[in-house]
Amino acid sequence: MKPNIQVCVFAYNLQSTIADSLNSLLTSCGEYPVQVYVMINGCRDHTLSVVSEFAKRYLNVYPIEITLGDKSNAWNTFVHQYYDGESIAVFADGDLTFAELAIAQLVDYHLNNPHFLAVSSFPCLKGRSAQAWRTALLREHQFTGNLYLLSPRYIQRIVANNVRLPTGLIGDDSMLGFLTATDLCSGKDTPLENIGVCTDAVFNYEPLNPWRWQDIKLYLRRRVRYSKRHMQQSNIVPKLKRDGLAVMPKYASQIDTLPIRWLSSNVLFDLIAARAIRREGRRSAGS
């Protein structure tokens, strides 16, 4: 009897692409029984109505509307409210499509290598950095936040320890990669032992076009997000290494220092990110 799969899909303002993504996802599961939870978080477009119509045709697809537009909060919501405690959990971004049987391959890899706490997928060969990304994944057993699997025993421990990602965290993949490599802050950092990489579970994404204005704006926003991630991780991870899960903040803006990389190409984005974090910190302090 094949194990049941629960897939958590993160969707934020994806009205034009989410149906194609879900069709691709369902096909990629092969013969595994699957339930798909689409975490529709803070959308200002028609993503909810598109997914709701899709769910009328596919009864194993469940649209979950979340008011707050925050991926980390959506992850917490699925793990602590919708995960059934026994299924194999797969997490996917809603702007991807998937190679043939990609999710089935991910699950097969887990069943053949159950000692891994998590299994990363493999990016398609698109964009300038794709090959370097693949090489680093295999060498370092990095955590791919685009598409990944958490073993039942690991996610059960996450729930039992009430592990939650900070609201507003940029780089959920980086934090989950750290938590997995260290087996929930156990004192060891062993990604090669804890994270598997399934090269047959390939996800497809559209690289940015440097000549398209919309993509240029998206790139600039990403640079600010990368700066926020740098500041958040620089504050949170050292504390977790020293004091364990108990010091995980509720909000990612609850950090002590804002390290500006003055002598680098990141300086402008760091300054913008620092201002945004201060503003978010004032809001979280008042909530």
From TrEMBL:
CDD domains registered for this protein in UniProt: Glyco_tranf_GTA_type
Keywords: Glycosyltransferase, Transferase
Gene Ontology MF terms in the entry: glycosyltransferase activity
Domain Glycosyltransferase 2-like positions: 7-135
Top-level division of the source organism's lineage: Bacteria
Segments forming a coiled coil: none
Enzyme class, broadest EC rank: transferase
Keyword Transferase: yes
One matching Pfam family: Glycos_transf_2
Signal peptide start and end residues: none
InterPro entries in UniProt: Glyco_trans_2-like (IPR001173), Nucleotide-diphossugar_trans (IPR029044)
Name of this protein: Glycosyltransferase family A protein
